[in-house]
């Protein structure tokens, strides 16, 4: 047994070496000891050693790893017919209709793409055309994709591309970090910062083409917004002639519970909605949803075509995902299970001095960790993430200081499985950073 | 029968209408009467009426429509395990190694992407970083993808994005359009134009980051280059501190015969190679191949990650495609069949006054059509394309004037099938534009 394990470990080491000399040593791998998964099913991932992990992190397999319905739909269509959309195909139109049915009626047109990056890049391109302006607003800790245009507005990870002269950043307010200020004051300050950024773009001659935001601000650490912030942000952008782009790559397709899309849950009213990660449950598929007027403006003067996007096979994958979310009631489930977990996380927050706040909604949670002085505690977050991985549970961390635990399971997770995640997390927190004697329950 | 046909035609009309109100009326469709394909196999496509077409146009299904080996590989992997590359996976590394084995030894690193657009955008981003410059050279009738960065350098189709201040265009020389000048003169003039474009970028303070070219210049109309042009172009770019990017989206994976990649056939020596269309035979898959030094420079300072790219399923598709090309000897077949077709096209050129030149190599051909005065003849090209579609053969047209017939079948086409294409084409040309009495064979 031990010899077998050693052999498997040696094989992983060799694989890591081969990976380093082909796709390179920079391509990031999760965890101190990289995991080598060979099998997936629902929320479960099995590694090469035969060990099974409960996945409470991955949001691409929204309807479960290796979902059989998605797999069967792709298998059938790819063996039958797959070509670009310059010919008619019923499956493609069916998918477009079924996807658009999850949006409010004024958002009634869709461009298909192959990824969230392509979606955000296209939305910015459309906004430049429609507004006639070039300026962009982005938040001060965000990531919206890997194209050159998106790299020039990336604030949440390292890029060498210079920050664009046509880009201004602003800070998303968080009532959990209000520093004693009241909600109206936080709101006013945050909107004043947006207005200032817009004025700066106008003075520099760029004008405003768009603000690009994730409606739940997940990379930013799932902040708790003051009432009226999103409405105020959208109004300032529209007053300046810009468009509001909701990046639903992380917050979409039922992730936040209650509604299909994050903007519907949080109250942001967008002109363009971009989609990626969960749309094809791992089949490369993204899209941009907008109004007929915006499509008419852009596409009547731009020959936009995307070879792989919205093919019969991509559409088969997308339709199977929509059917799973519908028929298994995953949107409402995310809401119900989310409430249950939030209550548990609130208990942990109340009882554990190093937990500053429980954040998020639906099946997207954050648990903000601090040290004894209340400062961000990325070391503890890292220790907890590694500890849980060693116990067979996958989570991660986010936020400007990497100090917010990120819990974001496939939507097919059950209440019992979520209890295991929270129980293990609670135990890990207590053991990694013991409560003072006499404290807690 | 007639009633059934009418019903099917009415259904297609309804589908077209539904398409127009979802993905929009602008999304281009081929042919005067759009085709509605429901089944594919090898070079054959079958439409909703049950009519079968010989596909001599599509280059995405390089190893044949609905290739069974690719379909089986995707079906097996998607039912087993599919997740991003932040975990180890043997299939991904195997694919990277097998793909890199088709390149010269100094091109030994690969970034996976989801499309040709993502590949070209990433290559430009890398070139900006490595060169420290921002200027770009592009040809005067080209298309390299749909991102905002690529739109700002698009010269071959309509975009509203203003042509970039950091971009200069130059003309690819064509000995078939030398206007009486000799080859050395054509070469000198063409290279002088490149040198001038570089000087202009330098004077404007942009410097040169890259030239981005398709090694066979397919969108430009498959020009016949003067000897030494590609070497001269690369030397000028390198002297200015720029990188050479070979866009293999159209010319790669055996398309040109003789070698795996277009640059290996034409003699262009690139620093970066970008791939798309045929790589996954319709599964969204692209990549950028480069040297270890370039990857080290870019990735050590840029956190580049791409969620869908190079997943276990994408790699399974890519490996199946490589295996098909290898085992069926498609690279050499493209060369052999290409020679045969070129000889036939040369005969057509010799005998038909409205055929100005036969162009291309491997399984990528152009037939340049002119009118009685020798001017480009897009009307005739369109008539021939439509005529062939009505006879059950799919081809298209390209070039700055849309006057070059484009023939670019899946590589699995047979000699007999190619004969049918050329025979039908020859007949169509004679019937559409009869030879003068006494002319021809």
From TrEMBL, chains A, B:
- Which keywords does the record carry? Aminotransferase, Pyridoxal phosphate, Transferase
Which PROSITE patterns does the annotation name? AA_TRANSFER_CLASS_3 (PS00600)
Top-level division of the source organism's lineage: Bacteria
Supply the InterPro entries for this chain. Aminotrans_3 (IPR005814), Aminotrans_3_PPA_site (IPR049704), PyrdxlP-dep_Trfase (IPR015424), PyrdxlP-dep_Trfase_major (IPR015421), PyrdxlP-dep_Trfase_small (IPR015422)
Transferase: present as a keyword of the record? Answer: yes
Task: List, in alphabetical order, the Gene Ontology terms for molecular function in this entry.
Answer: pyridoxal phosphate binding; transaminase activity
Q: Which family does it belong to?
A: Belongs to the class-III pyridoxal-phosphate-dependent aminotransferase family.
Which PANTHER family does the protein's record reference?
ALANINE--GLYOXYLATE AMINOTRANSFERASE 2-LIKE (PTHR45688:SF13), PTHR45688
Q: What is this protein called?
A: Aspartate aminotransferase family protein
Name its species: Galactobacter valiniphilus
